[in-house]
Amino acid sequence: MLEALKVIILGIVEGITEWLPISSTGHLILVEEFVKLKMSDDFMSMFNVVIQLGAILAVVVIYFHKLNPFSRIKTDKQKKLTLQLWVKVIVAAVPAAIIGLLFDDFLDEHLMNYVVVAIMLILYGVIFIVVEKRNEHVKPAVRRLSDLTVPMALLIGGFQVLALIPGTSRSGATIIGGLLIGASRAVAAEFTFFLAIPVMFGASLLKIIKFGFHFTGMEGFLLLLGCAVSFGVSIFAIRFLMQYIKGHDFKVFGYYRIVLGIIVLLYFGMSALFA
Q: 76, 38 in Cβ contact below 8 A?
């Protein structure tokens, strides 16, 4: 029962932080200091990635009509635009897929630590503030997803590669990429959500294959519970973000990241000092 409560907490954290550009990793390493599951390190490494499947499902549910190229109520032109959107998403997913497959173990071994996470939290917090200040008097050139070209999508995919460094935030990196190429906040955020589908599904599948399909009954239950909670919370987080950016910019997330990065550095630094 206690382990299930811990998984619910982790699922809530994942569901919120996966979509807001504030780094799910940065939050999870803090939360896991106080909410430790009594599971193997291999299981936890897989668990923290696979509960993202619930978050992916939230995107599919919310945007099912927009993402479905076979909808009977869409015109032929709308179906064509939907297929073109999927082409852009797949093209944008390629860079992170290649680099992730090649360097997944290296990144986990050498960069998954609180110093790297804290630095990335602070660095991208500053970048968010700088980019948004630059855009204060600039009208976005890309106001619709259909205006997004394949080269633009590939460039956003290049920014997603940066998110392989823990603490960066996948949504944060791709939103910054979208803003820099002239996309509106809504287009940058929505494309980030859609790009998550192949990327996060692939990452989850890779972790499951590495762990193996030999789950115990308890492990399977906790995994499904985490996915379910992540799904429910993600529905609210995605809708909140899309509503929020209608009248606000991303600077508040930049300030939040800087504060969180300092907290991570201070907490783990003091813990190491007095260990």
A: no
Look up residue 248 and give its amino acid: H
Residue boundaries of the structural domains of the chain: 2-273
Chain Cα centroid distance, residue 247 = 22
Say how far apart CA 8 and CA 31 lie, in whole Å.
12
Q: Are 181 and 256 in contact (CB under 8 A)?
A: no
Token representation of residue 79: 């179906």
3-class SS of residue 38 = coil
Q: Could you tell me the pLDDT band of residue 220, with boundaries at 50, 70 and 90?
A: confident
Cβ proximity of 37 and 222 under 8 Å: yes
Burial of residue 64 (CB within 10 Å: 0-12, 13-18, 19+) is exposed
Residue 123: closest CA among 271, 235, 262, 20: 262
139 has a pLDDT exceeding 80 = yes
Rounded Cα–Cα distance for residues 118 and 116 (Å) = 6
CB-based burial, 105-141: b 16+ in 10 Å, e otherwise = eebeeebeebebbbbbbbbbbebbbebbeebeeeebe
* Residue 213 pLDDT > 80: no
For residue 65, what are the contacts with CB-CB under 8 A and spacing of at least 6?
71
- The structure's pTM equals 0.92
Question: For 188-217, what is the mean pLDDT?
Answer: 85
For every residue of 206-268, DSSP letters joined together read: HHHHHH-S---HHHHHHHHHHHHHHHHHHHHHHHHHHHHTTT--SHHHHHHHHHHHHHHHHHH
